[in-house]
Amino acid sequence: MALGIKRHRQGGRLGFFERIQDKLFDRLVRAKVRRRFGGRLKALVSGGAPLNKDVGEFFTGLGLPLLQGYGQTEAGPIISVNRPTHSKTHSVGPPMKGVELTIADDGEILVRGALVMKGYWGDDRATADTIKDGWLHTGDIGILDEDGHLVITDRKKDLIVSDKGENVSPQRVEGMLALEMEIAQVMVYGDDKPYLVGLVVPDPEWLASWTKETGKTNDYAALVADPDLHTAIDAAISRVNKRLSNLEKVRRFALADEPFSIENEQMTPTLKIRRHVIGKIYRSRIENLYGGGAKGK
């Protein structure tokens, strides 16, 4: 696995003995995996939500190239996608043929071309706000790297602006936290605040194992205020904080009363968290984190 990831990162360059080991792994492991997918699989395509870089590299190292793409209903719907011959896991690839793409002064991704819609049916005002001088204002923030690959950093409306005027991408922080075995879901908050705080939903499988090991109750409502559970979650957040900049570190957190879901209207049908809904429900709990509460290191 590690050799496959290294080969992907270095554009196929491996040492002599590494190449031998990689070929052996290809025959013994990757070939079996490909056969389980029918034997003719060329690549997998990911879209709809940000692909964690580690997850993408895991699949690629296993012999299943995972190509991240980007699009919107208003634009075709495909704007860009990684190519099998030159894939960058952290990006959504270069624009498709015939797609003009530029980055506005405020970082917003603008798209122009035959793929852009004519407008919203019966809503001239929304159309005028979205399409200006032929450019579709996507509402996403991103950059173009040295190879012309598009890297999306966040939704324009989701960016957190600290009390010092610095921008933080919540999706990056949340994505890293959600990879920890203790955490199923998380929402970070910090608009006009001195630091980030988080609202955490523990992973149910991990929690079941933890309660069994510690002899704690299975009643989650009783566990929300349990200091030992907070200590365990704090350890997971602290591990992630070591890999984040000072601006991105989650300094304090609270536990949510229930998972974010479509049913409780805390997630959209496309499984994106509704920040404004969650923020309203837990407003007092979040605000209390700026005066006390569980700390992340």
TrEMBL record:
Domain AMP-dependent synthetase/ligase: 24-121
Alphabetical list of Gene3D superfamilies matching this protein: N-terminal domain of ligase-like
The keyword Zinc appears for this protein: no
GO-annotated cellular components: membrane
Any one Gene Ontology molecular-function term assigned to this protein's record: long-chain fatty acid-CoA ligase activity
Nucleotide-binding in keyword set: yes
Keywords: ATP-binding, Nucleotide-binding
Name listed for the protein in its UniProt record: AMP-dependent synthetase/ligase domain-containing protein
